[in-house]
Design a protein that fits this description.
The chain is of the alpha+beta class. 27% of the residues lie in helices and 25% in strands. The protein has 4 helices and 8 strands; from the N terminus they run αβββββαβαβαβ. The N terminus is likely disordered.
Amino acid sequence: MKLHQRIVAVVVVVLLCVPAVQGAEKADLVRVVKREKRLYLIRDGEVFASFRAVFGGNPIGHKEQQGDERTPEGRYMLDYKNAGSAYYKSIHVSYPNAKDREHARKLGVSPGGDIMIHGQPNGKEVFTPVTQLFNWTDGCIALSNKNMEIVWKAVDVGTPIEIEP
């Protein structure tokens, strides 16, 4: 086979692979079920991926205030991505919403914020087998870096997230 034929063959193979990469499944909903310790990626009502997740150190109940180490419960939006966070990639959850802020105001506390879906702390990935066994975040949803990479690619800004007890 001549050089130009080889180049054409390589280009054809690459072009055949591009639709598969571009067509990677995108979630239209992220569902987190804290009691199951799972994050689900959903498209058209069907789960297409599921990952082990861990939460705040005090996981029972809805987040009420800054520092309570709870992960919020309810429906929110994933409103921005941060590839340069202190953890392996992060996607921001739109907590607190107006209801959360009003509830915190009535309690006389700050509702907190900066709730993210993220991977492991940068530089500490070696501890993943241990850190995914217990709830350790300040209220975030933590995944392994491998799973965070999949979620990162499958979730666009503006995707809703439902967090259940």
